[in-house]
Amino acid sequence: MDAGRPRKQRQISTRCCIVGGGPAGMMLGYLLARAGIETVVLEKHADFFRDFRGDTVHPSTMQVMDELGLIDDFLKVPHDELQKLEGCFGKARLRIADVSRTGAKYPFIAFMPQWDFLNFLRDKGRRFPNLKIMMNTEAIGLIHDGDRVAGVRADAGGPLDIRADLTVACDGRHSIIRRSAGLEVEEIGAPMDVLWFRVGKGAETESMFARIEAGKMMVTLDRGTYWQCAYVIVKGRYDEIKARGIEALRADVVALAPPLRSGIADVKSWDDVKLLTVAVNRLKRWTRPGLLCIGDAAHAMSPIGGVGVNIAVQDAVASANLLAAKLASDGAVSEDDLAAVQRRREFPMRMTQAMQVIVQTNIVSAALKHGNGPLKPPLLARIVNAVPWLQGLTAKFIAVGVRPEHVHSPKA
Ligand SMILES: Cc1cc2nc3c(=O)[nH]c(=O)nc-3n(C[C@H](O)[C@H](O)[C@H](O)COP(=O)(O)OP(=O)(O)OC[C@H]3O[C@@H](n4cnc5c(N)ncnc54)[C@H](O)[C@@H]3O)c2cc1C
User: Fold this and answer.
1) Do the Cβ atoms of 345 and 294 come closer than 8 Å?
2) Ligand 1 atom with the shortest distance to the CA of 45
3) Mutational test site, ligand 1, from 31, 44, 400, max ligand atoms within 8 Å of CB
């Protein structure tokens, strides 16, 4: 190619352009295409195979899969099923939720690598000729017609304009779209960040979901041949921890979870450790004319409860329920139509963030700032552990959620 010649601006048009192929974007893409709507999903990465995605699929999401007739195939994708959520607080092992007591049709949490979940949606979406998923395509800004958002400016290996009647931002907690639209963010904050690394599995048989000790906390996800570790640190302390050296981190991890001793050598250097920053925030307003934000782009969720993926899916279902019929007709989608999505989803999102903040403050922060000496489990956790029906209530809140959505969007 002639390096001096400007690259040609391409342009395509569609009814709906979704930015971001995470849980919110892929589910919404599937639902709108199923309703016969011409839909383009832009994903900046070449594939979904990224390490740091939430792995928990809750009963609320499986209920949606069931309503879409996808559940049998979905459950054939390799996964682990967990009903009882337990954590080790110091020496005490406490049960904090029991999904088998929720009455949900699929009474377990499925642990499935998120790339498998997203690939599943992409494969199932192939049956809809009106769904175009553009990988390696990064949104870089918005196109405006007066004060209305009229599509997205993207880089697809060359400049590309996607003109759309509706643009939906599903581009996650660092959303460029919400920033480009000038939408105001209310920061709630999180006291922690996460160090994310893999430790090879040895002969250990003990399930090791969450461990909390004075000054330390870690969640381990079983990914078959290795443990995916999420080691929680006080926000902003990464440089300090790094300065102590990788050996010190390895020693801290093994002290917290002795069964990891056999595989900890896999963490060879800081190149094997990723810093994931945790944010909790929300937009005051999720819309502009021609634009809707959902999922983390509208409200960044903390990892607490492993709910963010499922809330993103619920947002997508609600958006399709409220907008698909209008989009399937030739009618214009007004800002009030879009605001109906925020009205529907704001309460469940606020309740869930409130729960996350309570846990962040009373358990995570309290544990991380706890000095030496034995860590006493919080009173609330001890009460829930002692009263099994309360474990059903906590599970219902986490795994089914507030105001669960059901699929009502049309099928073309
Ligand atoms: C450390 C950590 C651990 C977590 N663990 C869990 C968990 O176990 N379970 C759980 O349910 N939740 C978890 N969460 C929360 C969860 O990850 C999010 O709430 C959820 O992923 C939100 O889904 P989403 O589709 O809105 O956004 P995302 O999953 O962030 O997806 C956004 C997508 O948009 C793409 N994208 C971004 N910018 C652009 C652009 N400009 N152009 C095109 N594409 C773009 C991204 O590549 C990505 O694929 C965790 C969060 C953190 C920080």
Assistant:
1) yes
2) 47
3) 44
Instruction: State the average pLDDT for the chain.
Output: 92
Q: Which atom of ligand 1 is nearest to the CA of 221?
A: 8
Lowest mean per-residue pLDDT among 158-172, 242-256, 262-276, 373-387: 373-387
- Phi/psi of residue 319, each to 5°? -65, -45
Pairwise CA distance, residues 220 & 226, whole Å: 10
Of 168, 294, 296, the one to substitute when testing ligand 1's pocket (max ligand atoms within 8 A of C-beta) is: 296
pTM of the model: 0.94
Q: Is 299 in the pocket of ligand 1 (CB under 6 A)?
A: no
CB of 274 closer than 6 A to ligand 1? no
**Residue 211 structure tokens:** 């461990």
At 176, which helix (H) or strand (E)? helix 176-180
Which tens digit of pLDDT belongs to each residue from 12-68? 999 999 999 999 999 999 999 999 999 999 999 999 887 666 789 999 999 999 999
pLDDT tens digits, one per residue of 57-112 = 999 999 999 999 999 999 999 998 999 988 888 788 899 999 999 999 999 999 99
Q: What is 10-80+111-188+280-367's CATH number, 3.40.50.10610, 3.30.530.20, 2.40.50.140, 3.50.50.60? A: 3.50.50.60
CA of 74 to the centre of ligand 1 (A): 20
CB of 259 shorter than 6 A to ligand 1: no
Ordered by start, the domain boundaries in the chain are: 10-80+111-188+280-367, 192-277
Chain mean position to CA 24: 8
Query: For 55-67, what is the HEC assignment?
Result: CEECHHHHHHHHH
Q: Bridge-partner residues for 17, per DSSP? A: 40, 167
Q: Is the CB–ligand 1 distance for residue 312 below 6 Å?
A: yes
